[in-house]
Design goal:
Its main location: membrane. This protein has about 270 residues and is mainly alpha-helical. The chain is built from 9 helices and 3 strands; from the N terminus they run H-E-E-H-E-H-H-H-H-H-H-H. It has one domain.
């Protein structure tokens, strides 16, 4: 962070900058010192903090459910087992109401998306300055800890779902059936095939973009508000930060739920005949 007493602009800019590693045209392989250097590194630069925290929360999810599988009891569940079983039943309800096909993938997919996004979103509850200050003391210039406030992460998940949609559409309907579905919908006439293709391809591509941008927009807006609150006097921080954090509990769970449900709905279409 610039200086011992950064201005409001410097503070906000610092907290919204990722720890980016890539090939800089002048500095070679290095970490970016600011947004301009990160931009100059181009498409193949990687946001190390986003990747690190995404992997960490993913490992937390795997460990928790493995722990549950090994320690589950047949009696009345309590504590952590009760909470995780509620999440498991919740994901089953999503599948029962939103998925009309048969697949062994959908259950694990819905559970993983909901829990992983929820864990990543939940990092927003940590004090906004905690990890940036720890990273600064370790000589690390930037540290953003909420992966879902980075569009690279949310769009990456969205396009991951998109690839699954295309793969299972072709596998279940055949390449010809999938192509015919794109070419003859919504108007079932050969003369309107070009129009149908443009319309259906746009709809298909918009799905992952809307998934990613919806999640990113909500998490990024929440992060900016937390940063703005932290700039207020000490007494005002607690007056505003605690109510906003409590409200954000709903936002965090809701965004994870929406992403999981829409992913299941989109996947359901890949298993259905039009």
């Amino acid at each position: 962070m610039a200086g011992d007493a950064p201005s409001s602009t410097e503070y906000i800019t610092h907290h919204l900058q990722n720890l980016t590693f890539g090939l800089h045209p002048d500095n070679g392989w290095s970490f970016a010192h600011g947004a301009n250097e990160a931009r100059e590194m181009g498409f193949w630069a990687i946001n190390v903090d986003t990747m690190g925290w995404s992997i960490a929360t993913g490992l937390l999810f795997l460990w928790l459910f493995r722990y549950l599988a090994k320690t589950v009891t047949s009696g009345v569940p309590t504590g952590l087992q009760n909470a995780l079983e509620m999440v498991f039943e919740f994901s089953n309800d999503i599948i029962r109401t939103s998925f009309n096909g048969k697949s062994k993938l959908i259950g694990p997919l819905a559970l993983t998306l909901f829990c992983w996004i929820f864990f990543m979103n939940s990092l927003k509850w940590l004090p906004i300055d905690l990890f940036p200050q720890i990273a600064h003391k370790l000589g690390i210039e930037y540290m953003r800890i909420v992966p879902t406030s980075d569009p690279n992460a949310t769009l990456g998940m969205g396009f991951g779902v998109f690839l699954l949609i295309v793969f299972y559409s072709i596998r279940n309907k055949g390449f010809g059936g999938f192509s015919k579905e794109l070419a003859f919908n919504p108007f079932n006439h050969w003369s309107l095939v070009p129009f149908n293709l443009v319309l259906e391809l746009i709809v298909l591509i918009v799905k992952p973009i809307s998934l990613g941008l919806r999640l990113f927009g909500n998490m990024f807006a929440g992060e900016v508000i937390f940063i703005m609150i932290s700039l207020l006097p000490f007494w005002a921080i607690w007056v505003l930060d605690v109510p906003w954090a409590i409200f954000h509990i709903l936002v965090i769970a809701l965004q994870a739920f929406i992403f999981a449900v829409l992913s299941v709905v989109y996947m359901s279409a890949a298993f259905e005949e039009h």
